[in-house]
Design a protein that fits this description.
- By secondary structure, this protein is of the alpha+beta class.
- It has three helices and four strands, in the order βαββααβ.
- It is globular.
- This is DUF4242 domain-containing protein.
Length: 106
């Protein structure tokens, strides 16, 4: 497998973590704008306690099926952030996995 990630000496090596949301339980809930803003604020506040984590965003279709993208040391760190922020309760995930970029080939 070819990895497109290049490590720069002196920088922390981060993993790409994807939260998958595809089942009825894992899809994003129907939520008001206020609930989404509160969830986002809780996640952003929790992430600010981690120097080695970047939340890239949540991407979903109209049915709430989608992904959340992270750069973090590992899956366990993202799971911990979900627990601390309350996101695990409001918007549980189906799977959280580490992935590597395989295309485009370099």
């Amino acid at each position: 497998m070819v990895l497109a990630t290049q490590h720069v000496p002196g920088e922390l090596l981060m993993a790409r973590i994807i939260t998958m949301r595809y089942s009825d339980e894992g899809r994003l809930p129907d939520a008001t704008q206020e609930q989404l803003e509160e969830l986002q604020a809780n996640v952003v506040e929790t992430v600010s306690n981690y120097d080695d984590v970047e939340f890239k965003g949540t991407f979903a279709n109209d049915e709430g099926m989608g992904i959340c993208e992270w750069e973090a040391p590992d899956v366990a760190t993202v799971e911990q952030i979900y627990e601390e922020s309350g996101a695990a309760e409001m918007a549980p995930s189906d799977e959280i996995i580490e992935v590597q970029q395989v295309l485009p080939l370099e």
